TrEMBL record:
Residues 161-269 form the CdaR GGDEF-like domain. PANTHER family: CARBOHYDRATE DIACID REGULATOR, PUCR FAMILY TRANSCRIPTIONAL REGULATOR. Residues 319-376 form the PucR C-terminal helix-turn-helix domain. It comes from Micromonospora zhanjiangensis. This is PucR family transcriptional regulator. It comes from the Bacteria.
Length: 391
């Protein structure tokens, strides 16, 4: 096919131009591309025709030849083109170019080689499609690795408490919409390749329509959830992406700018979670306040001191006195009533009031534990509430 190859080589420029004109007519989305991207497509089309010539010269036109089309045919365009044009659109462009070449077969083929050239073009179109698939697969892998790195940097910035500008720029690069509310979930990573771990989580998140940014931080998997009314319920549906062990969800915050607070609470809860072996999975960081306080979390100690002990102090001495008597009586209501010289119904009423003002019910074992820790923390540092130390 020496003469046919020469004819195709001479017609390379006109074939590429005709292909571009056909793309304009047949593909509405192509007409909307910026001028620079259209010029890149033109370069690829020209490279494709040159690749057909080179393929034929190296024996690719033989039916049983193992010759493959080199991926270099797409090297004429920058990698950014793969982000602007999808694989499906690329296949459409290839089809248009092949159609133009097939129409020109009578003018390109030497006498008696028309049928052979059509078969060659058909095999070439298959090989060029495979080459495009390989290019897009590599681009996806590279983009996935870069996204995983960028997500890891964002998680690191979040855990460090970096400025909102740093968080916003990195989140924007990942396409984060910052839909409120935002919450952070922390659990153990299942291990293995970080990209594969994040891919699993993202696949689940897409299925349940949850926006997330994830990163593996040491042996921990940290997820930032956005636009989820109930972060705890959403995290429960994402549990398959975590490894064994506790999964702790921080409080919901208005935006990514303030997500450091949620991340800090979730991490503190994750560290303290082993102290509550029967904790639900996932568990809210707020439900681990007593364990977090005992583990040295200053924010948990402050919350218990101000929102529990301080509330009881400000409510008047009888609530605090009743709670002390109730605990001293081992949780037996009648014994507490005798110690206070009041009717048991009075104790019941005061215990209900304690539950109303603090959010913790003394009759519930778990809440009673939190109340005990709150009393201890508050009495160890009464000055933080402006209460004189009476020791």
């Amino acid at each position: 096919m020496t003469e046919t190859v020469r004819r195709i080589e001479r017609a390379a420029g006109s074939l590429a131009s005709a292909s571009l004109a056909r793309m304009d007519d047949a593909l509405p989305w192509f007409r909307g591309l910026p001028a620079d991207q259209r010029s890149w497509v033109m370069l690829v089309a020209q490279a494709g025709v040159r690749s057909l010539v080179e393929w034929l010269r190296q024996g690719g036109g033989v039916a049983d030849s193992p010759q493959e089309v080199s991926d270099e045919v797409f090297a004429a365009a920058p990698r950014a083109l793969a982000r602007s044009i999808s694989l499906q659109q690329t296949v459409a462009l290839i089809k248009v170019t092949i159609d133009v070449v097939e129409e020109q077969v009578p003018h390109l083929a030497a006498v008696g080689e028309e049928v052979l050239l059509r078969e060659v073009v058909l095999r070439f179109s298959r090989e060029i499609a495979f080459a495009a698939a390989r290019v897009y697969a590599r681009a996806a892998e590279s983009r996935g690795a870069w996204d995983a790195r960028l997500q890891a940097l964002l998680v690191d910035a979040l855990l460090r408490g970096d400025s909102s500008d740093v968080l916003a720029s990195r989140a924007a690069a990942l396409g984060w919409s910052d839909a409120p509310p935002v919450a952070v979930a922390v659990g153990r990573s299942p291990g293995g390749d970080v990209t594969a771990v994040l891919h699993t989580v993202y696949r689940i998140a897409r299925r349940i329509d949850v926006e997330i940014i994830g990163g593996v931080h040491g042996d921990r998997l940290v997820l930032v959830l956005g636009g989820v009314a109930n972060p705890l319920a959403a995290t429960e549906r994402l549990l398959a992406g975590f490894g064994d062990g506790p999964v702790v969800v921080g409080p919901a915050v208005p935006s990514l700018d303030t997500a450091t607070d949620s991340a800090r609470a979730a991490l503190a809860g994750f560290r303290a979670a082993p102290a509550w072996p029967t904790a639900p999975r996932p568990v809210a960081a707020a439900d681990l306040l007593p364990e977090r306080a005992l583990a040295g979390d200053s924010e948990a100690r402050r919350d218990l001191r101000q929102d529990v002990y301080g509330v009881l102090v400000r409510a008047g001495g009888e609530l605090l006195e009743t709670l002390d008597a109730f605990f001293a009586a081992g949780g037996v209501l009648e014994s507490a009533a005798r110690a206070l010289y009041v009717h048991p119904n009075t104790v019941r009423y005061r215990l209900r009031r304690i539950a109303e003002v603090t959010g913790f019910a003394p009759l519930a074992p778990r809440d009673a534990f939190a109340l005990r820790v709150a009393l201890t923390v508050g009495r160890l540092d009464p000055a933080a509430l402006g209460i004189p130390n009476q020791t």
